[in-house]
């Protein structure tokens, strides 16, 4: 039997090991620390257990949800507790405007108080702008800034998109991170109209389920060695991460 070694027990390493096991390989997972999960961890703040990494996944993208089902966790998927999302902007805590796609707005009327008068005026100019090319891909932040202004990116898109993908909105791929927006802007026309088309199509499909889901009880730390219910794999804790295998 062929043998594969996966270095690193974060979510990427665990997903890679799972996929390799499914092909029939014997898999050894090497992790330098005493726990699995990488950046997915919990800690204590003021006596309360809180997530220090990502606490949920996008439920309307199939990859993570399908992976949870494949390893027997489908029955433990739960939406986060209901709470109203807010932004701290312009010296006040303000409700997250409704009618957006990953922070990209579709209704300027909902942005009062969140954006400055100058920011709102910049959005109003979009219909007069020449088309912004997207090619095979474009960064979300760069495209939105070109169409609606940097203030929209810095106050709306970056807090949400950058938080979900742990990256810089000006460098995050629209095609990979927000594919429905990428396809909509390729159709042409103002960005505001593209966002509204996405919302109308979602409503037509009655896409009303939770946007995010987490795994109930997943905050408990997972320490090596660990059982693998899906095939001949082994996990080992290594005192240091090898540079090559």
Automatic annotation (TrEMBL):
One of its GO terms (biological process) is heme biosynthetic process. Residues 232-245 have a biased composition (Low complexity). One of its GO terms (cellular component) is cytoplasm. The keyword Oxidoreductase applies. Residues 11-204 form the Amine oxidase domain. Residues 214-245 are annotated as: Disordered. Pathway: Porphyrin-containing compound metabolism; protoheme biosynthesis. It comes from the Bacteria. Its cofactor is FAD. Its EC number is 1.3.3.15. It is found in: Cytoplasm. It catalyses: coproporphyrinogen III + 3 O2 = coproporphyrin III + 3 H2O2. It is an enzyme of class 1 (oxidoreductase). InterPro entries: Amino_oxidase (IPR002937), FAD/NAD-bd_sf (IPR036188), Protoporphyrinogen_oxidase (IPR004572), Zeta_carotene_desat/Oxidored (IPR050464). PANTHER family: PROTOPORPHYRINOGEN OXIDASE. Involved in coproporphyrin-dependent heme b biosynthesis. Catalyzes the oxidation of coproporphyrinogen III to coproporphyrin III. NCBIfam families: proto_IX_ox. This is Coproporphyrinogen III oxidase. It comes from Streptomyces microflavus (Streptomyces lipmanii).
């Amino acid at each position: 039997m062929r043998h594969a070694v996966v270095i690193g027990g974060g979510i990427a390493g665990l997903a890679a090991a799972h996929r390799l096991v499914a092909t029939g390989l014997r898999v050894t997972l090497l992790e330098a620390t005493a726990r699995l999960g990488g950046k997915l961890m919990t800690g204590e703040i003021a006596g309360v257990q809180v997530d220090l990494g990502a606490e949920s996944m996008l439920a309307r993208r199939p990859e993570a949800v399908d992976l949870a089902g494949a390893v027997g966790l489908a029955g433990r998927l739960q939406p986060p507790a209901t709470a109203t999302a807010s932004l701290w902007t312009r010296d006040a805590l303000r409700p997250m405007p409704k009618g957006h796609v990953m922070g990209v707005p579709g209704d300027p009327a909902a942005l009062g108080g969140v954006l400055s008068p100058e920011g709102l005026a910049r959005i109003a100019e979009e219909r007069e702008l020449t088309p912004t090319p997207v090619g095979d891909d474009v960064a979300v932040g760069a495209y939105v800034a070109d169409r609606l202004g940097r203030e929209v990116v810095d106050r709306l898109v970056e807090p949400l998109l950058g938080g979900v993908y742990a990256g810089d909105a000006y460098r995050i791929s629209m095609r990979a991170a927000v594919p429905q927006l990428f396809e909509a802007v390729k159709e042409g026309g103002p960005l505001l109209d593209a966002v509204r088309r996405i919302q109308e199509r979602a409503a037509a499909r009655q896409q009303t389920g939770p946007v995010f889901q987490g795994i109930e009880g997943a905050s408990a730390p997972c320490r090596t060695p660990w059982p693998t219910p899906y095939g001949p794999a082994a996990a080992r804790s290594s005192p240091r991460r090898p540079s090559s295998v």
